[in-house]
Design a protein that fits this description.
This protein is an alpha/beta fold. The chain has 13 helices and 14 strands. The chain is globular and about 60 Å long.
Length: about 375
């Protein structure tokens, strides 16, 4: 009755069942996986609600790329980053997930391939499945910091490959794409006629002292840079994102024209949100400052606690909302996180959730409220050091 593309294994794993038991028992939980910026004690801006009540929102004016005023506010966002694009290069979507679906439709026929970094966020698999696209991983390796394994990437390219995804900075590794890596990516994309899909939802959350460039500056290969208000302004409930298209003029212009037809087919971004985008983007500075204080505070607390023991270490992080712990491999990561949940009331993500290929990695959210983060980390390390 159902399509092959929905043939997922929906059986609950042991970790999910353990979490359900814990929630049913009503026990205290130190959640170090939290990713919802609206529920971590940050102060929201009240004028956001007023921005949604503009009379212009009552007028139906379908624009496939999105309203010019909204797209110009996206252009202004990039200008503040030192990037010059124009409104004609941008198309609004309801989310980066929808942006991916537009781009998969633009670039791929059924069973075509898109290369994706590993480790990375697990949602990509479902996005590809429902578009009949096959994901092929290429490796990120850790050696005094994360870097693209170009040998792995080259081996992953086939006659069916249509694009390379980069996440800048990556989730969960927090690693930005370096200038030399971007140059090599451009060379490979030109050589094999591939597009670059750059996911930059965490781009503004740079935790290092190094400045990194947005892929929206990239002209050497056809590039689609995605971002949105979910992370930039901490407004996942507003459902606004965009695609900025750059690259060689002829192919970029053709891509934009085809994307416009795809967007016109759905017309998914609603009028009140489009009218509010300038104000919502304007609120992002306050949110980012609040969250960066939180991220630095929790990262400092994590490092302070790690100095008090010798079994666990933190991998280098350049940006984003997460930290990765390297822990002793005494059992599988799933067994470890279940033990932490059942014995210590601490919730963390196992590395395999983000496609780590080996055990010994735990992922912690740095946006957790400081008191919860400090106590949860204390319990986590106590458990690991008593094993």
């Amino acid at each position: 009755m159902f399509s092959r593309r929905t043939g997922w294994n929906l059986t609950k794993n042991a970790f999910t069942l353990a979490l359900e038991r814990h929630q049913h028992a009503g026990r205290e939980l130190f959640d170090l996986t939290v990713s919802n910026p609206t529920r971590v004690g940050l102060e929201g801006s009240r004028h956001i609600l007023a921005a949604l009540a503009k009379p212009e929102a009552l007028d139906y004016d379908p624009q496939p790329r999105g309203s010019l005023r909204a797209r110009e506010s996206v252009v202004a966002y990039y200008r503040a980053l030192g990037v010059e694009i124009c409104a004609e290069q941008t198309i609004l979507t309801t989310s980066t997930s929808e942006a991916y679906s537009f781009l998969f439709r633009l670039l791929c026929d059924p069973e075509d391939e898109v290369l994706i970094p590993s480790p990375s966020y697990p949602l990509f698999e479902f996005l590809a499945d429902i578009q009949d696209v096959r994901l092929v991983p290429y490796e990120l390796v850790y050696d005094h910091g994360w870097q693209i394994d170009f040998h792995s990437l080259r081996k992953s390219i086939s006659s069916r490959t249509r694009a390379v995804i980069v996440v800048n900075p990556n989730n969960p590794t927090g690693s930005y794409v370096k200038a030399a890596e971007q140059q090599e990516l451009n060379r490979l994309c030109r050589e094999h006629e591939l597009a670059l899909l750059a996911d930059e939802v965490f781009f503004d959350f740079n935790l290092s002292k190094v400045k990194f460039d947005s892929f929206a500056t990239n002209q050497a290969a056809l590039t689609f840079t995605m971002s949105g208000l979910s992370k930039i302004a901490g407004l996942p409930q507003m459902k606004v994102a965009w695609i900025a298209t750059t690259g060689p003029t002829n192919v970029a212009e053709e891509a934009i024209e085809k994307l416009e037809v795809i967007a016109d087919t759905y017309l998914s971004v609603n009028a009140p949100i489009q009218q509010a985008i300038p104000e919502l983007l304007a609120s992002s500075d306050d949110f980012q400052q609040q969250l960066k204080v939180r991220l630095y505070e929790n990262l400092g607390e994590l490092d302070r606690q790690l100095r008090g023991q010798q079994l666990c270490s933190r991998l280098q992080v350049e940006g984003g909302w997460y930290a990765i712990l390297r822990v002793p491999v005494t059992r599988t990561d799933e067994e470890l996180v279940i033990e932490l949940l059942e014995r210590r009331d601490v919730l963390v993500h196992p590395g395999h959730f983000f496609n780590f290929h080996a055990d010994g990695y735990l992922i912690l959210s740095l946006m957790t409220t400081p008191a919860v983060f400090a106590e949860g980390t204390k319990r986590l390390l106590a458990c690991l050091n008593s094993a």
